[in-house]
What does this fold into?
Amino acid sequence: MSPLPSPRPLPRLRGVDRARFEAEIVPAGRPVVLEGLVADWPAVAAGQTPKGLRSYLAGLDAGRPVQVFRAAPEVQGRYSYSDDLKGRNHGPVQMGLTTLLDEMLALAGESQPASVYAGGVPAPLCLPGLAEANPMPLLDPARERLTSLWVGNRSTTATHWDLPQNLACVIAGRRRFVLFPTTQVANLYVGPLDFTLAGQPISLVDVDAPDLERFPRFAEAWAEAEVAELAPGDAIYVPSLWFHNVGSLEPVGAMVNFWWRDGPQWLTTPMFTLFHALLTLRDLPPREREAWRVFFDHYIFQTGGEPMVHIPEDARGLFGPMTPEALARLRAMLARPLTR
It folds into this structure.
């Protein structure tokens, strides 16, 4: 197997303010590293030492149990499926956040430690005051967002996509991000969509040791990959649906991220549409399926512009403005066939 070339480095910027972020970076729809964006955070100052990080986060710990992934040393922090893709190579356990931090510090001195990792810990519930003490300068304080903590020892979060936009901020240890555009989905060999490790489908390819005999098209994805290493105080912007692989490179590491979505609040995940299409589209005869692609392009993706421009707005039915009444009618219409 021939070694793959090094991927392109991700663009890096300094001194980005909210106006530039909103006017240039988000509309461009491409990931970028924001060097030193949160270097003045108290969490970053505390995270200069493992004990400092432990003390800071334990001081905010509300005492709620969090889900922790734990894996044997031979897994080397690469959380994935069992060989038959029907199980996991690790086990989820519940523990207190401070207990997890103590375990991380104890494992830091071992040459081949077990892996422990908690991701997506909701800050408002589990660490009240964390977001207020460490504000995100690029987001309007009034914008609805989800603020989460990611903490663990050396580990790798498999390549996956997220629906929301993401600002991930390193507060302790170093992190490596490898990113792929959404267009590479066919070359990343994504695992089961309805049995995931932590909510999001993941690529089955180990980016650090890809098996190109089993996954030959991964070489095409790698040609489009971009990579960045983040130090404490750095942040990265990951647009919606960009694939990203995240490696925690230190015995003790922590990251805070901010997730948000643009669009009306009533929107749910398009993953529901994908699953619904299993009932309605996938197994149609090819000619009919292609004909439905035309309808979706016209009415949903609006490749030719507004499809209802020839109909008065108050006569467009469900294709008019999504009022509370229209939303209730739509939900009922979709639910009826599914409950028969």
